[in-house]
Amino acid sequence: MSNIQSQSAEKPQFYLEEDHHPEGSTNLGFWLYLMSDCLIFATLFATYAVLGRNYAAGPSPADLFDLKLVAINTAMLLFSSITYGFAMLQMERGAKQETLFWLGITGLFGLAFLGIELYEFHHMILEGATPQRSAFLSAFFTLVGTHGLHVTFGLIWLVTLMVQVSKHGLIAENRRRLMCLSMFWHFLDVVWIGVFSVVYLMGVVG
């Protein structure tokens, strides 16, 4: 009887008290997410390839796109990728303030990219080039707008990580999160190069 009472008095443990995070599990999961995002953008690119020439007697890419403005916008996003790379280098050195500085510069370039894109959308809508005007414009706004939403989410993620780093420093968890955001940000650059080449460049030159 006493043995039963002593066993019942013991506190059962159904979990490990220390935090256990399998090495590489976050990176694997995030790569799987990026692959699913690749499928989404591949579908949008395929849709644009099919519908991109259906103008319905409306404006064509040559009538709407300002390649100089789009080139500046592309430079903003590419510069943001470079500055994020600088932030990762400072993270490897353990330099907290320098990491935050370059993350902030990255955020400013990202905001500039979104601002120019919104200006372009606003200008097109004022000219009557709305998504419902033609299949070309529907495909264009869907593809470019989806990319813009990803950049917006990336900026929110960036600000959140800057707060986390400023509070807790470059701990292992924050380093892992910064690595995931780095993959996401560079992925958006690659997608945008495809958008610039297929939608804007080929639309105006072709």
List keywords for this structure.
Four Helix Bundle (Hemerythrin (Met), subunit A); 0% strand; mainly alpha; elongated; 7 helices; 206 residues
- Overall mean pLDDT stands at 90
Indicate the CATH class.
Mainly Alpha
Encode the helix/strand succession as letters: HHHHHHH
Low-confidence stretches at least 5 residues in length (pLDDT < 50)? Answer: none
Q: What's the CATH architecture?
A: Up-down Bundle
The tally of strands reads 0
Number of helices: 7
Oligomer: single chain
Radius of gyration (CA) equals 23 Å
Helical amount: over 70%
- Percent of residues in beta strands: under 5%
The total number of structural domains is 1
The rough form would be described as elongated
Distance between the termini: 89 Å
Biggest sheet statistics: none
CATH superfamily: Cytochrome c oxidase, subunit III, four-helix bundle
The chain-level structural class is mainly alpha
CATH third-level topology: Four Helix Bundle (Hemerythrin (Met), subunit A)
